[in-house]
């Protein structure tokens, strides 16, 4: 029975929806943090004025940071952590991620 269960879990892993935590830079230089399952679509929604109320008056916005999370709960928790960071710490997070993608 456990072999069948393991096989089913492996198949389901391929069907799981990815979740992302992201940071947008608004036209006034402020940052907005959120979560989504589709970063390009979400950026378009923000720029169309159908995203968050905060970004509507600060368009255009640009997605400057994206981090994949294991599930929705992890994405929501990470969003709260990032929202609690100072502007300087958010900038460092983005800079470190950029260096990571160039070096790794």
Primary descriptors:
three-stranded antiparallel beta sheet, 104 residues, elongated, GIY-YIG endonuclease
What is the element layout, followed by pairings?
Layout: H1 2-13, E1 19-25, E2 31-36, H2 39-48, H3 53-56, E3 62-69, H4 72-83, H5 87-103
Antiparallel strand pairs: 1-2, 1-3
Could you walk me through the main structural features you see in this protein, from its secondary elements to its overall organization?
- The protein has helices at 2-13, 39-48, 53-56, 72-83, 87-103; strands at residues 19-25, 31-36, 62-69.
- The radius of gyration is 17 Å and the shape is elongated.
- 53% of the residues lie in helices and 20% in strands.
- The chain is an alpha+beta fold.
- It has one domain (19-103): 3-Layer(aba) Sandwich (GIY-YIG endonuclease), CATH 3.40.1440.
- Strands 2-1-3 form a 3-stranded antiparallel sheet, sandwiched between helices.
- The chain has 5 helices and 3 strands, in the order αββααβαα.
- A hairpin with a 5-residue loop joins β1 (19-25) and β2.
- It starts with a helix and ends with a helix.
Largest sheet: 3 strands, antiparallel
Summarize the amount of helix as a percent range: 40-55%
Kindly provide the name of the CATH class. Answer: Alpha Beta
Q: What is the number of strand segments?
A: 3
Q: What is the name of the CATH topology?
A: GIY-YIG endonuclease
CATH architectural grouping? 3-Layer(aba) Sandwich
SS-based class: alpha+beta
Number of helical segments with 4 or more residues = 5
List segments where confidence is low: pLDDT < 50 over at least 5 consecutive residues: none
Cα-to-Cα separation, first versus last residue: 41 Å
N-to-C SSE string, H for helix and E for strand: HEEHHEHH
* Total discrete domains: 1
CATH superfamily: GIY-YIG endonuclease
Tell me what portion of residues adopts beta-strand conformation.
15-25%
Radius of gyration: 17 Å
- Spatial arrangement of strands, main beta sheet: 2-1-3
